[in-house]
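Re-run with default settings, no changes from the original entry. Doing this only to confirm the output is reproducible before filing.
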Amino acid sequence: MKLKAGDPLPSVGLRATDGYLLNLRSFVTKQPALFLFFGAPSLAGAGRRRGLKAIQSLMAGHDRLREAGIAVVGISTDSEEQQTEFVASQELPFLLFSDERRSAVGLLGIETEADGANVNVVNPVAVVVDREGFIRTVIDPIEPETLIDQVVRSLSEPIPATTGP
């Protein structure tokens, strides 16, 4: 990851599964957010399983996050069409953003892998951002069993002080 706790979330416009173009930075001015970068809609093998486990964790904890005032957004490098199909098949209670051009994953330094023309996030990464647009924590690797607790805790604690470059 290029960014860490205390850094501002970059301003990147991505298309959401509801059809709107949304900017990550301005999205969080409404409420704190959890952005889950994952590969699953068009990824195969172990990477798909890791992504699905992270998504399932968010689905199971979605009500708790919503009650805590935390927005949830999934982000993959798949096309809007692939994501729309994925949302329908998984019955996701939250939006997905398409980073098909890989602008957000590039700015954040999230690892991707290519399989022909298809490029996906290798391992799921959660980025928790406060309403001022600052990254509170980066959760990598993700442990699905504790993900929701980590997110809620990170937004209730002060941003850790940095100790140099």
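Strands lie at 13-16, 21-23, 33-37, 71-76, 95-98, 112-115, 118-121, 125-129, 135-139. Residues 45-67 form the longest helix (23 residues).
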